[in-house]
Write a structure and sequence with these properties.
The complex is a heterodimer. Chain A is an alpha+beta fold. In chain A, 20% of the residues lie in helices and 32% in strands. The chains are: A alpha+beta, B alpha+beta. Chains A and B meet through loops of A and strand 4 of B.
Chain lengths: 348, 128
Amino acid sequence: MSPFAGFDMPIQYSSITDEHNAVRNACGMFDVSHMGEIVVNGKDAERFVQYIFTNDISNAEDGQVFYGMMCREDGGTVDDLLVYKMAYWDFILVVNAANIDKDWAWIQEQAKKFEVILDNRSDRYAQLAIQGPEAEDVISDVLTLPVCRMIPFYHARYVMIDPKVRMFMSRTGYTGEDGFEIYASPETIERYWDKLLASGRCKPCGLGCRDTLRFEVGLPLYGDELSEEISPIMAGLGMFVKFDKGDFVGREALLKQKTEGVTKKLVGIELADKAIPRHGYTVLKDGEPVGEVTTGYHAISIDKSVCMALVDSRFAKLGTPLDIQIRKKVFAGKVVKKRFYDKHYKKA
Amino acid sequence: MSNVLEGLFYSESHEYVRIEGEYGYIGITDYAQHALGNVVYVDMPEVDDEVSAGEEFGAVESVKAASDLISPVSGTVVGVNEALDDQPELVNQDAYANWIIKVELSDKAELDNLMDAAAYTKFISTEG
């Protein structure tokens, strides 16, 4: 077990590779109870979420889920998060565990000009992510929740069977596979975990493969690919920043970055060799440092050594040869797309 | 339970040396490969490189992490196990058959600083 954001989290239950492959090919489950849940209610709820969130939630239907960021005035990323529009006036923000305190303070500060009721329910909600091509069948059969089949991609609904909290589930995840996330009381989540484990149809998965899975499909991890210093524009996540929706925190700075360009950009790099570029290693161009690796692995699903790296924008073009210093040696690589492995979402 | 072979010399950083005449075959122990998990890359020095006892000479990488290889003895590299370039997982299959480098020892007295099989078995039982 390893300490992570105040929780004791397993890196692996069996082996990272086995767990990773179970999610890609069948079904795996992650206890992600550490994630934060902040509820926004009240008359100004939608207007407030629009103000602190980079994506555009106007005209959303009930149950729609959005991915995006909260940014500072200077464009730096406070956090990346999911916004659940459960109903008119009823939004749930799902934030990173390591940022719950920071986000909660930030959200309360921003809310002063709005009529909203905020509630940090992070301690009351546990969360189970069930991911993989068989997730839908496993949840229907083992948890007897066939309602999951009716939930479209990036949608959620309340499931009123948990006496302790307003349980909800969504077709979302952090693996690039079809899958669901269930938010319920710790008692309910524990019961579900035990049922799934006993069924033998769902492999328990740790933080280790959660990282290898999200990395391969190019999903960012706050702290690596996004931070107070790395804006969504630098991270190549401009599609989640909607400038035409009106004012929001960071709009001006981010628009400037988008129109005038940024000095650093997040790229994918593929190495010819099997050596593994890891977080913090230096990226070189003709022997000169031009950037740093944010996450790197010998990617399990494609059997190649690849990384994401924040580099000088002049060298961010696809195909640009870039080298990586790994211990005492320099390994040759080239810029490739950050999505090393294709997502297999089940979209209607 | 980790396998510990008689007749080898062991370091606290979980490398072994198998002595054949003037040469030593250096690899990681069965205990070490278990702890690392699936090995996906072995970073090896080149023939004619010098290695020093207690100093890093390469690394073994698993999905989880990179782990430095510390030489248990000093000498000159006279061979590297090139099979590991294409099949690093051989280290997991049999850590003792799949040595990493072959070294011509410069000072055999250094072996006295290492553990024998009994001492290493005891060492890993307290570490685990």
